[in-house]
Amino acid sequence: MLPAAAEPAAGDSWGMLACLCTVLWHLPAVPALNRTGDPGPGPSIQKTYDLTRYLEHQLRSLAGTYLNYLGPPFNEPDFNPPRLGAETLPRATVNLDVWQNLSDKLRLTQNYEAYSHLLCYLRGLNRQAATAELRRSLAHFCTSLQGLLGSIAGVMAALGYPLPQPLPGTEPTWSPDPAHSDFLQKMDDFWLLKELQTWLWRSAKDFNRLKKKMQPPAAAVTLRLEAHGF
Amino acid sequence: MALFAFFQTILLLVSLSLRTCQSEVLSEPLPLTPESLDVSINSAQRCLHLQWRVHSLAYHQELKMVFQIEISRINTSNVIWVDYYSTTVKWNQVLHWSWESELPLECATHFVRIRSRVDDARVPEPRFWSNWSSWKEVNEQNSLGHKASSVFPVDKLVEEGSNVTICYISRSHQNNVSCYLDGVRMHVEQLDPNVSAFHVNNVAFVRETGTNIFCEMDPKDDAGTVLFVSKVLEEPKDFSCETQDFKTLHCTWDPGSDTSLVRKQPYQSYTLFESFSGEKRLCEHKNWCDWQIAQDSQEMYNFTLVAENYLRKRSVNILFNLTHRVRPMTPKVFFKNISATNATMTWRVHSTGNHRTLLCQIELHGEGKVIQQHNASIKVNGEYLLSELEPDTQYMARVHCGDANHFWKWSEWSGENFTTLEAAPSEAPDVWRDVKSELGNRTVTLFWKPLSKSHANGKIRFYNVIVENLDKPSELEPVPIPAPANHTKLALDQCSYRIHVTANNSVGTSPASVIVISGDPGNQVEEERVNVTADGFSLSWKPQSGDVTGYVVEWCDRPQDGSCDLQWENLGPNTTSTVISSDAFRPGVRYNFRIYGISTKRIAYLLEQKTGYSQELAPLVNPQVVMSNLTSHSFTLSWKDYPTETQRSFIRGYHVYLKPKEGQCHPGFEKAALSDNSVCCKYKIDKPEQKTFVVENLQPESIYEFFVTPFTSVGEGPLDAFTKVTTPDEHSHLLIRIILPTVFCVVLIMIVCYLNSQWMKEKCYPDIPDPYKSSVLSLIKSKENPHLTIMSVKDCIPDAIEVINKPEGSKIQFSGTRNSLTETEITKPAYLYLLPAEKNYSGPGPCICFENFTYNQAASNSGSCGHVPVPPTAPSQRGLLTSLENLLKALEKNYMNSQGEIPAGETTLNYVSQLASPMSGDKDSLPTDPPVPALCSEYKMQMAIPLGLASPPLSENSSVSSVTLLDQGDHHH
């Protein structure tokens, strides 16, 4: 130890550098130095928003592959079949006035519930997929969707909203209905992907709205100062 | 028994009586109408199952009948099928008949009716049809359920190549119905307002999720179905079973196409059935299945492999004796006793049961090729000695075994790599030498070629070189040279040396290669040219009689860059020719080959030397030609030889090109076209050693252009610029012969004259003193008479020149310097004091003096120029003194006056003209004795002398005939 103390080795230099870097890294976390304070749910909402956009992009590719796997007419761009067997899917479409007047809590709850259901359905879809490549893509997307669900849960926790508890025994499943013809089953798959796409569009708007709403009130202070001027 | 026989007879009689009775009945038309018609539907199979009875038959009556069945679709009048069914009908028998519809039964209502007719030979003609049964309606349209429309069949599974009819049913009337099969619109036929249908022949497999059929109409009511088209199940191919351990039979097959369809049909199943044991096993894998061999030593097996999917079954069968289906297990291989040339391979084949004899194949691979193949018969353990191996070589040996008695299949190969040990090098290295003598010492470079792998027998670590002095025996010291060096240098004196070179690896030493470096410098041989063939340089030499143990041919692979890269080839004593080829040979490079004979004492002596080109190339440069001996009719061209190294081919001679003056070639020249299409005269010099050429028969004062290029077997040198030469005129040489010496002489004279210019000047044109620049003037100016001036000569017009022939003894000569003047100032007259003596006086000699007497206007008192007559012999001193006094007075009076200001009557200038003042004696001292009288011819310049200074008190012993002012050394022009 003595020689090391007298003449620092190269390893000690690196250690000191690492220590310095660690200190610098943690400086923002030191309350006295952290001038920004608690960032609030803003960053979480931003991350959730970014995630929805990413999933939108990812789904576009996945849906293309899956609909080709189903074959025509499901992979045709103007195919718009009746929503026969997809009643159980959570609907993303909503009246504009209703959507605008949604409370933050309800907005987040709807998102959370929708993705919880959609995730279950998607996992069912994955189980039935015939090709390994498709199963891999679906599994990857499910993981991402799980991340989105966690992100939404994080925003809700940050805002102090409780997570909706699923009723026991009502776990949604996406298994082929024996009464359903295979064509209807394919229609369900089609609608699942379509509804998922719509939900991601809607969520992007939901979180964009929340993001704007949660911005720091700096602009409001400026406005008050201007009012005093009058 | 008797009772039984009795009853039997009774029954027969009754039966016969009844038959007789029936025959009577059948003779009349009977109302045998089908009754209790029941129609059931199998939608999946698109089948209608009909069952009915014929109640009218008597008890136990059997009657051959034919039934006519009519099937109508949509309505009863639309009969789509009429069929006849013949059968023997028994009493109370339920009859069955099925019909398969091409249209799914859900698509339309079907109606069925039936009638019958006796078709029995026992019934006489005419026979009549019964009445039709009532129409039976078959309706599956309820399958629509709550849906507004549907497409049928639903999720139908068919095989590839089937024909399928699809229908589209809606509750509302259909308009503009469009149906698509996998995106392709189909031709639809409307069966009724609510039903459309289309037919697909020979359906193809598209994807495992099925072929989608989608129909739409106006008003919008879409529906679809999936037609699952399965690939046709194939019969399993290459089905076989074998055992390795008599415990398990491993059966394999090629399953063929995958017939699975997503959510419809799983992968086809395979079931193994053994008929002798009656056991069955559903196989879990697509292409193999293991069957456990029972302990009861069943020998024969009859296996049936059944492939099955929802649509069909395919099966294959094999029957075999278990002992004929033995494939031994993969052996485990080991090596032992590996030496430089041998290795023992051992292997073990695990349990094939009952210690069966196995036939094994052993393969030895070296460098990727099979080099040995052996067979061995073993029970369980095998051993084989692999011999004739190369030392330090990696081999791979592998083995596989099969049943020797009933060969079925070889086992898997099992192999291992092994490397043999090293051995001492088996051959002496191939050694050659290069000897360079310099200042009595010799530098011998020994070269050796690396031993081939087969001779090195391992990694060569070093070479030992032993130098043995044959003239002075001494202790031999081996010098190790680490590999991979391939040469070493030795500095040797003029003694003979024997050099031993051995190669050494970790095991031992190779035989020594011996070479003797003789003290004899060796002979010189003439160089010859070598023949070149397509294979290389073809060398041959004269066979040497006597003790030649072999020949060596050496050459440099790279002579062009100076590195040489010495190569050699050893040849046997009976060889007198060889062909040398090398990838390093380049066209246009001269290669020299030296052929040495090797004596029994291992001394190499040069036999022949050959040179040649692998391919000759045209010269790239032309010689530097020097033109000389230019005359009006000829000139000489000469050039130097090329360095041999730069020659790209053998030079066979030279072409001298000369551009003719008037289109005619000189004798010996011939016309030739150059590469630039110009025509000129060419002279061919056939001897390459001729390096000069005289161009003759030229015209004087003419311009000729010449150009010299070498020619070879492949062409001549490049076309360079011609050099111009102009022949001189015919007489110019004569002129040169005259002018040059003349000019030389003139120049010589001029040089001589220049060197003796002073002398010449003195002799021929001495300087005329300039009175204005005389030092006298400065002295006068320093005196009190500032008006004194010097008379200009031009201002005086001499009126008489008197030539006086001075007697020798009367001539007064003055000499001396200023210094001497200073010393003699007191004793000598003043004017003498001012006149420096002549320098470089050559001595007394006879001369003629021309004297102008000084004119003194003041002395004459006449106011005009006059002359003072000087007595020819001894002028009176008085008179002279008087005149001098007058002169001095005049000078004192008028010194400061300028010439112009001086009034004519007051002119006091004296003019003394003189050429020279012959003086004798020491110039630094005044002559004390009268000079030796000499005849002189001299002209004395005249000058004006200030009167104040011109009062030379003549010494008594001096004889002065005139006043002479001599200053030859300091006069100025």
Model description:
Chain B: It is found in: Membrane. The complex is a heterodimer of chains A (230) and B (973). Chain A is mainly α and 230 residues long. In chain A, 66% of the residues lie in helices and 0% in strands. Chain A has eight helices and no strands. Mean pLDDT of chain A is 76; it is low at 1-12, 27-36 and 219-230. By secondary structure, chain B is mostly beta strands. The longest helix of chain B has 25 residues, at 2-26.
Helical fraction of chain A equals 55-70%
Q: Got a strand count of chain B?
A: 58
Structure class of chain A? mainly alpha
Query: Structural class, from secondary structure content of chain B?
Result: mainly beta
Mean of all residue-level pLDDT scores of chain B? 78
Question: How would you name the oligomeric state of the polypeptide chains in this document?
Answer: heterodimer
The residue-averaged pLDDT of chain A reads 76
Could you give the distance between the termini of chain A? Answer: 73 Å
Protein name (chain B): Oncostatin-M-specific receptor subunit beta isoform X3
Membrane topology (chain B): Single-pass type I membrane protein
Biased composition (Low complexity) (chain B): 951-966
Transmembrane segments (chain B): 734-755
Topology:
The complex is a heterodimer of chains A (230) and B (973).
Chain A: H1 2-6, H2 10-26, H3 42-70, H4 96-100, H5 104-128, H6 132-158, H7 182-213, H8 218-229
Chain B: H1 2-26, E1 34-42, E2 47-54, E3 62-73, E4 79-90, E5 94-100, E6 110-118, E7 136-138, E8 149-152, E9 156-159, E10 164-170, E11 175-181, E12 184-186, E13 189-192, E14 195-200, E15 211-218, E16 223-230, E17 237-243, E18 248-254, E19 269-274, E20 279-283, E21 288-292, E22 300-308, E23 313-321, E24 332-336, E25 343-348, E26 358-366, E27 369-378, E28 381-386, E29 394-403, E30 414-419, E31 430-438, E32 441-449, H2 453-456, E33 462-469, E34 478-482, E35 487-492, E36 497-504, E37 513-517, E38 527-529, E39 531-532, E40 537-540, E41 548-558, E42 564-571, E43 577-580, E44 590-599, E45 604-613, E46 625-628, E47 635-639, E48 651-659, E49 670-673, E50 679-685, E51 692-695, E52 703-712, E53 715-716, E54 723-726, H3 732-755, H4 757-764, H5 775-782, H6 818-824, H7 830-834, E55 848-850, H8 857-860, H9 877-894, E56 913-914, E57 937-939, E58 941-942
Parallel strand pairs in B: 9-16, 38-45, 55-57
Antiparallel strand pairs in B: 1-2, 2-5, 3-4, 3-6, 6-7, 8-10, 10-14, 11-12, 11-15, 13-14, 15-16, 17-18, 18-21, 19-20, 19-22, 22-23, 24-25, 25-28, 26-27, 26-29, 29-30, 31-32, 32-35, 33-34, 33-36, 36-37, 39-40, 40-43, 41-42, 41-44, 44-45, 46-47, 47-51, 48-50, 48-52, 49-50, 52-53, 52-54, 56-58
